[in-house]
Design brief:
Radius of gyration: 37 Å
Number of strands: 22
Mean pLDDT: 83
Low-confidence stretches: 228-234, 427-444, 573-585
Number of helices: 27
Strand content: 5-15%
Strand order of the largest sheet: 10-11-19-18-15-20-21-22
Length: 757
């Protein structure tokens, strides 16, 4: 059959492969599909992008069509045509080169991925008046990373992750490229949420309970870092370290065994090593000998596990690989490849199932079984058996650089680093000094941060582990400053005491028959006098006291300490009444009035006997939200919390959602009939790393919904005259707006008493 005519430009690189590619395509595709394949190749040659797009399509297009079907042609051509009209048209060759390497199963998958490419191009290219003028710096990164990304997540999950990256970093090319390479913690957290399977965080509690119940082992279970290579098969192996058991952060079902059962097998195997294995000096062992010792020792641990928990046997047999045929066994084999791992995997399966092949395997199985028949055996005895196997099975091919790894990894077994100790430092240990030090998460004098999610209203999903919240004890000032503030608001304090006196008797209950009290219990006193005159020993419990009954309230006051609280307050005195022009600044600041109001409130709550904690907050990007503890629930309202209240200062921004979530954690641990979270703020939620002013408002509203679900009542006192535009969206009707800030010291206690009356 004659080769088809080639219209358009001719390229030497294409001429060299054209006839061979056409011949291969005719073997794989029907005549109509071959014609359509060639038509797209000729069209690519006329794009003016050089030979590379046409060359890549000729090399890989036929195989793609054979795998996905001719339905791929129309969406692919449409996507390439759209890309050709942009400054990123030069990326067409790279797109066609990476397309065959993608984990795509249907035309719909391919169409979805192509749509993601175009969305990324539109969202990350430099544009003026909505017209792209420079190519996207992120598109080449996405094309290069796509094979590894699609090896872990489905196309739909990749699209959601990419959309999140564009929303967060679409205007920052460097940050977007970092996001696409999964170098940032937020990128990895969002990506892991899209991966199929069971997350270790969801299985951790059950695994720890199993280890405690069956092994009396109370060690942390820690996630392994995400692998840098493609696919779950390349994931880092479980390992046993001094700080705990390290397991993969996510697993899917395999070979009919569920993800949770796989996690249980891994945890049980590590627990068995912790109980029955002992380390060996590794300096005089060759890599081949160490590999053999690890294989036989792993088999011993599994045999002891099956002795205690025979129900694990079915899962082990299903997950243990059956290695492929040994290439050395083929008579015409000329391949220079090491088969050591294949032979060790066959030995491992024989030790697990007692189904041996050659004479050497049968002999090893017999010695292994005989050793375990005497008890638990030992690591040293397994090492002796492994060395004997190495001495008799060694082959010249074991020294070849190319090693067969396929079908040799036993699913639930670890990397056995705990089996070896080194007397002399080698090259492996020397390289450890080159590792960069881990950045400190917290200052030496403060607690490590708590990680909280943040609500993304555009995606209707959380950004996991997005915000770092630090707990700090507020540095103390001078308690006398608070006393001076209270003296300046003496009239307000006097009126407040009058309200409290009217409120207290409603819940006061007399306690009779007391050794000490505030009043004499007349009935008991008369009875004691009669006993005394009759010569009997009188009962001395003749006093009476009071306590509150039916009022069990825990209150946490969350103070906004952003930089805006340092602003001076406009003079509240109207024109014509003396005291200055309306709108003039007075000597008071929002912070000084807030201190006075909080001090009055704390005194009122102490009088009523309710539980109270006072916490301030401010934020400096999502990397640092400080919660400053002024008074704890168990502290009395005395000099120490007064001094801390005097020391509070305004700084930075107002990331309210994270502060609400952490305050809810603190309040949810209190035992009370009613738990009230009061928020005192002077402005809308904001932070310097958030461009959209509505994002943090939506996150704060979501945090309030979360607190409602926990049974915590939230009420906001806002000092912002413009609060009506947003505070209702966050707190609903549970808010009070104080337009004249000077009224705060009087209004704050009144609002509290109205909420708790």
């Amino acid at each position: 059959m004659l080769a088809p005519q080639r219209p358009g430009p001719r390229f030497a690189e294409v001429d060299a492969i054209f006839d061979a590619c056409v011949a291969q395509a005719r073997e794989r595709l029907d005549a109509d599909t071959v014609d359509a394949w060639l038509d797209l190749a000729f069209w690519l040659g006329r794009l003016g992008r050089g030979a590379e797009p046409q060359r890549q399509w000729l090399l890989h297009g036929a195989a793609l069509l054979a795998r996905l079907g001719p339905g791929l042609l129309a969406p692919l051509r449409e996507a390439l045509a759209a890309l050709q009209k942009t400054p990123d048209g030069r990326a067409i060759g790279a797109l066609l080169a990476v397309l065959p390497a993608l984990r795509l199963f249907t035309v719909a998958d391919a169409t979805g991925w192509l749509a993601q490419v175009l969305a990324l191009q539109r969202g990350s290219s430099v544009a003026i008046h909505h017209r792209a003028i420079d190519p996207s710096a992120a598109l080449p990164v996405f094309l290069a990373e796509s094979p590894g990304l699609l090896a872990r997540v489905p196309v739909a999950g990749l699209g959601r992750w990419l959309d999140a990256g564009l929303r967060l970093h679409g205007h920052h090319p460097d940050r977007l490229a970092e996001f696409l390479r999964r170098e940032s913690p937020d990128s990895r957290a969002l990506f892991n949420r899209e991966r199929p399977g069971l997350a270790l965080a969801d299985a951790e509690r059950r695994l720890m309970l199993t280890l405690r119940a069956l092994w009396a082992l109370d060690e942390p279970i820690l996630p392994l870092p995400e692998p840098t290579t493609d696919g779950e098969a390349a994931a880092a192996l479980p390992c046993l370290e001094a700080d705990g058991l390290h397991l993969p952060e996510r697993l899917a079902a395999r070979a009919g065994v569920g993800a949770l059962q796989r996690y249980r097998l891994m945890a049980a195997h590590l627990a068995g090593h912790r109980r029955w294995s002992h380390s060996l000096v590794a300096d005089n062992w060759s890599p081949m000998q160490r590999l053999a010792v690890e294989t036989v020792e792993d088999a011993r641990i599994d045999a002891l596990l099956l002795r205690r928990f025979p129900g694990l046997g079915a899962a082990m047999r299903a997950l243990h690989p059956t290695p492929p045929a040994d290439p050395d066994d083929a008579a015409d084999s000329q391949r220079r490849v090491s088969t050591l791992r294949l032979r060790l995997t066959r030995l491992s399966r024989a030790l697990l199932t007692s189904e041996s092949g050659d004479d050497l395997e049968r002999e090893c199985v017999a010695r292994f079984t005989e050793s375990l028949s005497r008890g638990e055996s030992s690591t040293r005895e397994m090492a002796t058996l492994a060395l004997a196997w190495v001495a008799r099975s060694r082959r010249p091919s074991d020294q070849f650089a190319e090693v067969i790894f396929e079908g040799t990894q036993v699913d639930w077994r670890d990397d056995n680093r705990h089996l070896w100790r080194f007397i002399e430092a080698g090259d492996e240990e020397d390289t450890l000094g080159d590792q960069p030090p881990r950045p400190a998460e917290a200052e030496p004098d403060e607690l490590p941060p708590r990680l909280y999610p943040e609500w993304d209203a555009a995606a209707l999903a959380y950004r996991p582990d997005w915000v770092k919240v630090y707990d700090r004890l507020q540095p103390a000032g001078r308690a006398a400053d608070i006393d001076a503030l209270l003296a300046r608001h003496h009239d307000t304090e006097r009126d407040l005491k009058r309200l409290l006196d009217a409120l207290k008797p409603q819940d006061r209950v007399r306690l009779h028959h007391q050794e000490e009290g505030s009043e004499l219990d007349l009935d008991r006193a008369i009875a004691a006098l009669g006993d005394l005159r009759a010569g009997l020993l009188p009962d001395t419990r003749v006093q009476m006291s009071h306590r509150t009954d039916g009022r069990d309230i825990a209150v946490l006051l969350l103070m906004d300490l952003s930089a805006s609280v340092n602003d001076r307050v406009k003079d509240p005195v109207p024109a014509g009444e003396g005291g200055g022009e309306p709108g003039a600044e007075s000597g008071e600041t929002v912070l000084s009035l807030s201190r006075a109001a909080v001090a009055l409130l704390a005194g009122a709550i102490a009088t009523l006997g309710d539980q109270l904690a006072i916490v301030g907050f401010h934020s400096d990007t999502r990397q640092r939200v400080d919660l400053l503890h002024v008074k704890g629930f168990s502290e009395a309202w005395d000099e120490a919390p007064k001094a801390r209240l005097a020391g509070v200062q305004g700084a930075f921004s107002t990331r309210m959602g994270a502060a609400l979530r952490h305050a809810g954690e603190l309040l949810s641990g209190r035992r009370a009939d009613r738990r009230l979270l009061l928020v005192l703020t002077d402005g809308r939620p904001s932070d310097v790393d958030v461009a959209d002013p509505e994002h943090l408002v939506a996150d704060a509203a979501q945090a309030v919904h979360e607190l409602d679900a926990q049974g915590l009542y939230t009420h906001c006192i806002s000092l912002d005259a413009q609060a009506d535009a947003y505070v209702g969206r966050i707190f609903g009707a549970r808010c009070s707006v104080i337009d004249r800030v000077a009224q705060l010291p009087r209004r704050l206690p009144e609002i509290f008493l109205g909420l708790t009356r």
